[in-house]
UniProtKB/TrEMBL annotation, chain A:
InterPro entries: Alpha-ketoacid_DH_E1_comp, DH_E1, PdhA/BkdA, THDP-binding. Residues 73-345 form the Dehydrogenase E1 component domain. This is Pyruvate dehydrogenase E1 component alpha subunit. It comes from Pseudonocardia cypriaca. The keyword Magnesium does not apply. Its cofactor is thiamine diphosphate. Keywords: Oxidoreductase, Pyruvate, Thiamine pyrophosphate. One of its GO terms (biological process) is branched-chain amino acid catabolic process. Residues 1-33 are annotated as: Disordered.
UniProtKB/TrEMBL annotation, chain B:
Signal peptide: none annotated. SMART domains: Transket_pyr. This is Pyruvate dehydrogenase E1 component beta subunit. It comes from Pseudonocardia cypriaca. Coiled coil: none annotated.
């Protein structure tokens, strides 16, 4: 298995390395925040730091590329905030916020090649953005008009998966298919798969089984765990006794932890991992160490379990701010650029909102469509009966 | 007792069972600090501690499977599944172990586990949060399956389910969690595995359970203005089905409408129809009609009003039955 030159395989966590319950802020327990393995290219203060292992995966990120990443981060955050507001105003049934996770998603998403395939969970609005899915396409799920309106084949971005961990096996299987079809290797059309899930998901049997399958079939799949510290009210320590990335060793593939609030590091590490997969050395587990700055969903009340301190701590690590500071300090980017992105994000938010409030109600018999690929007499009979019944109200 | 919501009634019932028996433990995702996403377990961890109210890792197979082990050890675990659509990762443990251990061991091993599942739609949720999977469990021999429909029943039924030596799959009508009702603490509770006539009537029998009880009662009130006296029966126990009150009723009314949110094919409602026609064929003046969800996956929430049986659909079936 090839790894970057000075890669040290992660060592299994020993019990003593666990921080004591008393000493750590609730959400940071058992997660070794200060782990020396954490890959970082951009500090929270916006300073570019060298990383001998991963710098080479970001050499092409010049000031223009960095501006472009900044734009992604800002626009994604903007429509995410708009989603939250729309839910508060009764326009959406629910919204799943990604606040704080923009860098983890943009970095990973921008690392993908067009031919790569992504399997998201339900919070991956930023990854969807990088796959060219218009943010308005996400609205139907949360407004209740559909279960995902984009074409997973055309966009190479699978539908959102709400059942925790289910998609990990599907991703492993898809990647096995890529391998069986000879799409791994050095060729220009070689492919990889990336699968997104949360820290809580790592407890599910499906995720464990997905790791086993991917390992024994050498499937080209990057398992991308966004450890946002919380599975609704449960901290990561409720799911694991060792840092999550260290689990990979037990399955026989590399696991690596990256600063999930550092878009550059997420980009570089994911590029490396995808290349590993494309060239036949997969799978790889990436733990993007980040934090859910908002509620789990708009139905959740984090004040019941989360500490305010913790939130304040993570505000200092904001993924957007550090790119902005870097652009200003190290590249002399002027205010005009930031104003431009701001204006663009306002436009996007307005378009997003307008689309949302004007979404048409699905046709009444929408629920009968596409239950099966082949005709179903039962469904057709029910549809006909339903339409008759519906018609009986006309003119009443 | 004052008016209490169904969620609070369950909370009080759980509390009573935990106070009575130190072997009763509550386990599930977010049941501790958060008190469950519906707050049914609110405050229990604070009062009973972390060893009796377990915030478990996020894994349903793990929740059920370890509950089985705890039960073998003498505990009485009450597992919370967060939403209906998330029981399936735990389905294997439920049907392979929970349902069969007593039989396999010929009674040497008891597994008194309760699996609580908020079920049904009508809350405008996303996928997997509105399903009615009860028939899967009723089909598995070895499980008992019940559904509560109102606060008083919820309060007693949860305690009875916990006291039962058999595994009980306990369905809670999530869209009724916030509805209030009186609980008479001095009344003798209705037996757990028995259905119940909730509203007597002589024109036509309506059999239902869970969230649809309220809808059917509303239909019965509406039918009154047309001069129809509907008898409404809350099935309460879905496996074993207690059809005696239904049969007794049908022998008087000659008409039966069965109502549930779940799709119709191979379901609780099909079972009711099959058995009633077998046992009361000559009393029936019309075929037994069903009002159910459609045989589609649960649709996007903007369609659920059309998907879910409502007052009009129940009344339409009543009219069709009576016009036979
Ligand atoms: C199988 C299953 N069980 C329970 C749930 C309910 N649920 C939705 S999200 C969630 C927490 C997920 O946490 P994590 O995997 O860390 O992802 P995050 O939402 O934090 O990104 C739970 C318990 C679910 N969706 N699927």
């Amino acid at each position: 298995m090839s790894v970057p030159q000075d890669w040290t395989p992660p060592t299994a966590g020993s019990q003593d390395s666990r921080p004591s319950r008393e000493h750590v802020v609730a959400g940071l327990k058992a997660t070794d925040e200060g782990d020396p393995e954490l890959v970082q290219l951009l500090t929270p203060e916006g300073e570019r730091v060298a990383d001998p292992r991963f710098d080479k995966y970001a050499t092409d990120v010049d000031v223009d590329a960095l501006r472009s990443l900044y734009r992604d981060l800002v626009l994604v955050r903007r429509f995410d905030r708009e989603g939250n507001a729309l839910q508060r105003q009764g326009q959406l049934g629910i919204w799943v916020p990604l606040l704080g996770q923009e860098a983890a998603q943009i970095g990973a998403g921008r690392a993908m090649a067009p031919q790569d395939m992504a399997f998201p969970s339900y919070r991956e609005h930023g990854v969807a953005w990088t796959r060219g899915i218009d943010p308005t396409d996400l609205l139907g799920i949360f407004r209740g008009t559909d279960h995902g309106s984009w074409d997973p084949k055309a966009t190479r971005f699978h539908l959102y998966t709400i059942v925790i961990g289910n998609q990990v096996l599907n991703a492993a299987g898809y990647a096995m298919g890529q391998k069986f079809e000879g799409k791994v290797g050095d060729g220009p059309d070689s492919e990889a798969t990336i699968c997104f899930f949360g820290d809580g998901a790592t407890s599910q049997g499906d995720v464990h089984e997905g790791f086993v399958w991917a390992a024994v079939y050498d499937a080209p799949v990057v398992f991308y765990c966004q450890n946002n510290q919380w599975a609704i009210s449960e901290p990561t320590e409720r799911q694991s006794r060792v840092p999550l990335y260290k689990r990979a060793t037990g399955y026989g593939f590399p696991g690596i932890r990256v600063d999930g609030n550092d878009v550059l590091a997420c980009l570089a590490v994911t590029r490396w991992a995808l290349e590993e997969c494309r060239s036949g050395n997969g799978p790889v587990l990436i733990e993007a160490f980040t934090y859910r700055m908002d509620a789990h969903t708009t139905s959740d009340d984090p004040s019941r379990y989360r500490l305010a301190d913790e939130l304040e701590l993570w505000k200092l690590k904001d993924p957007i701010e550090r790119v902005r500071v870097n652009l200003v300090r190290e590249h002399g980017v002027g205010q005009e650029f930031f104003d431009g992105v701001q204006a663009e994000s306002d436009e996007l938010a307005a378009r997003f909102r307008e689309f949302c409030v004007n979404m048409p109600q699905p046709a009444p018999d929408r629920m009968f469509s596409q239950v099966y690929a082949e005709p179903s007499p039962l469904i057709e009979a029910q549809r006909a009966e339903f339409l008759d019944y519906h018609a009986s109200f006309e003119g009443v | 007792m004052a008016q209490t919501t169904l969620a609070k009634a369950l909370n009080n019932g759980l509390r009573a069972a935990m106070e009575r028996d130190p072997k009763v433990i509550v386990m599930g995702e977010d049941v501790g600090k958060l008190g469950g996403v519906y707050r049914v377990t609110d405050g229990l961890q604070k009062d009973f501690g972390e060893q009796r109210v377990l915030d478990t890792p996020l894994a349903e197979s793990g929740i059920i499977g370890t509950a089985v082990g705890l039960a073998i050890r003498g505990f009485r675990p009450v597992c919370e599944i967060q939403f209906d659509g998330f029981v399936f990762p735990g389905f294997d443990q439920i049907v392979s172990q929970l349902a069969k251990l007593h039989y396999r061991s010929q009674g040497k091993v008891k597994v008194p586990v309760v699996v609580r599942i908020p079920f049904g739609g009508g809350i405008g949720a996303v996928e997997h949060h509105s399903e009615s999977p009860e028939s899967y469990f009723a089909h598995a021999a070895g499980l008992k399956v019940v559904a509560c429909s109102n606060p008083a029943d919820a309060y007693w039924m949860i305690q009875q389910a916990i006291a039962s030596d058999d595994p009980v799959i306990f369905f809670e009508p999530k869209r009724r969690y916030w509805e209030k009702g009186e609980i008479d603490l001095d009344a003798e509770p209705h037996p757990l595995f028995a259905s119940r006539v909730v509203r007597p009537g002589s024109t036509l029998t309506v059999a239902t359970y869970g969230p649809m009880l309220k809808t059917c009662l509303a239909a019965a009130s509406a039918a009154e203005s047309d001069g129809h006296e509907l008898e409404v029966i809350d099935l309460r126990t879905l496996s074993p089905l207690d059809l005696d009150p239904v049969l007794e009723s049908v022998r008087r009314t000659g008409h039966l409408v069965v109502v549930a949110e779940a799709p119709s094919e191979s379901s609780i409602t099909s079972e009711v129809v099959a058995r009633v026609q077998q046992a009361a064929f000559y009393s029936l003046e019309a075929p037994v009609l069903r009002v159910t969800g459609f045989d589609t996956p649960y649709p996007p929430s903007k369609c659920e009003e059309d998907y879910l049986p409502d007052l009009d659909r129940v009344l339409d079936a009543v009219d069709r039955s009576l016009a036979w």
